[in-house]
Amino acid sequence: MKTNGNTAGSKHKVVTLREVAEAAGVSTSTVSRVLDDRMPPSHSPTAQRVREVAAALGYRRNTFASSLRRGQTATIGVLVPRLSDTVMALMYEAVGRAAKRLGYFTMVATTGDDPAEVQDAAHSLLSRNVDGLIISSSRRHDPLPQQLREQHVPHALVLRTDGISPSSVGDDEAGGYLATRHLIDLGHTDIAVLSGPLFTSTATGRLAGARKALREAGIESNPDWIIETGFGTESGAEAGEKLFAASARPTAVFAANDNLALGVMAAAHRYSLTIGTDIALVGYNDIPLSQHLPIPLTSVRTSFDQIAATALDLMLATTDDPHPIRKALPTLIPRQSSGSHSSVGIRF
């Protein structure tokens, strides 16, 4: 049996299918079939011998080349606004895990919140022949998904949706309702809502859920306490300053993501207000930091892995439904920040 003869410092030699076939005494097509991990594994003596020879020679299947022969690259492009946002980083990692299970590699591009940058990033990824796009940066009226639909580019929106393209999202309205209903059930009627940017479906959905809970409870919300914000910590701190500096301030705050809630915590500290006692606070997404804060944060949890796996299925699937939108149900995780010490999740 031949070996590849590699030594430290020598140039790596690429072992071909033909070399494996010659060493194993079988045809090249047999080797290709045995080593194709997309096929059910064969346990015949010939297949076992081919795998042993391939391992001894150091053969590695060239997924890129075989994908090109099928007109694919086994690569998926992922668009996120920024990876400094914990939620977007977690979402990208979840997409990467889901893609790996299906034999795909992911390539990420950050876009900020500028639609022109989103367009440029999408075109850049498509020029690298990705097999499709997973997009977490879309606005409700973003032109990119429409262009992708018209050009028949496989794609799915994740976390956010334009209401038309294939989308895998959390049920944001249900989550906003859960968060606000929790505060109402704890006895609060003076509730502020920090919505996030209303050009996103996440913000509009969570605000709609909050308004529904307030309306059902017969609570007329103070318009000064419904604040459109960004999604960053700084936006939460700025909104918290505005709320806590006023002569009449709320007793509870629903922040439409955990970064906003962290900003509210910082503002409360500056005004000598204790979270969980003076101010009840609920966030959204249940990022890992939430439960490890000095005052653990009550938050609405969505399953990033479930959302990512569904997005990949939508992007890769051929379906009779031209505009499928899948929603994952959220769970409320009560902690000390809302004045609740229970750790039992509450589902919608």
TrEMBL record:
Protein keywords: DNA-binding, Repressor, Transcription, Transcription regulation
Domain of life from the UniProt record: Bacteria
The keyword Transcription belongs to this UniProt entry's keyword annotation: yes
All residue ranges annotated as the HTH lacI-type domain in the record: 15-70
Membrane-spanning ranges: none
InterPro entries per record: HTH_LacI (IPR000843), LacI/GalR-like_sensor (IPR046335), Lambda_DNA-bd_dom_sf (IPR010982), Peripla_BP_I (IPR028082)
Protein name: Transcriptional regulator, LacI family
Natural source organism: Rhodococcus rhodochrous J3
